[in-house]
Amino acid sequence: MNGQKAVTPTADALVASAKAAGKGGLPPVHLWNPPFCGDLDMRIARDGTWFYLGTPIGRFELVKLFSSILKKEDGKYFLVTPVEKVGITVDDAPFVAVDFDVTDTGAAQVLTFHTHVGDRVSAGPDHPIRVERDAATGEPAPYVHVRADLEALIDRKSFYRLVELGESVDGWFGLWSGGQFFRMIPENELDLT
């Protein structure tokens, strides 16, 4: 035995570490590789609601703090501090894009998305938009890259607004942002009824 006491991860300990590490912006979680300390009973639902021990976390400041120390590795999600890493469950994407702003039109257009935790990201080569379609229903699920392999599910009202901005390019219906065209659906599969 090495004499160190085994520590069970808790949300309170993560809060204290995250506050200390996150002074002045987003913490550099991409630089941290602490030992895995186990899973925490924390879950992010598809609608962006964070749960701890089965109960929604009602304090926005706390959710925002946790979101700042979120990291994805090998398809799994973790809350990371310089000294510990705990696994959490994410139902779909960890963030939800709840609105966006548009500047310019056509190839000069820029779409800037706002997430439910306060992130702002302009879609473009470094922050691509992608659309997955359910194999059974064909229903689209649109996403925008936010940071470090973390995406936001674009909410339904925003997606409908995006569709109104879409255009056809080389047989695809999609969107321009940041000088890049993002394909959404093959033009021949559009239901124009």
Cα(first) to Cα(last) distance is: 70 Å
Q: Mean pLDDT, nearest integer?
A: 90
In oligomeric terms, what are we looking at?
Answer: single chain
Strand order of the largest sheet: 3-2-1-6-5-4
What do these coordinates show?
With 193 residues, this protein is of the alpha+beta class. The protein has helices at residues 11-21, 60-68, 156-165; strands spanning 36-44, 50-52, 55-56, 70-73, 76-80, 85-90, 95-103, 110-115, 120-122, 129-133, 140-147, 150-154, 167-169, 172-177, 180-186. The strands form 3 sheets. A 6-stranded mixed β-sheet has the order 3-2-1-6-5-4. It starts with 10 loop residues before the first helix and ends in a 7-residue tail after the last strand.
Kindly summarize this structure in a few lines.
The chain is α+β, with helices and mostly antiparallel strands.
What descriptive keywords fit this protein?
about 190 residues, disordered N terminus, alpha+beta, 6-stranded mixed β-sheet
Topology:
Elements: H1 11-21, E1 36-44, E2 50-52, E3 55-56, H2 60-68, E4 70-73, E5 76-80, E6 85-90, E7 95-103, E8 110-115, E9 120-122, E10 129-133, E11 140-147, E12 150-154, H3 156-165, E13 167-169, E14 172-177, E15 180-186
Parallel strand pairs: 1-6, 7-12
Antiparallel strand pairs: 1-2, 2-3, 4-5, 5-6, 7-8, 8-9, 10-11, 11-12, 13-14, 14-15
Helix pairs in contact: 1-2
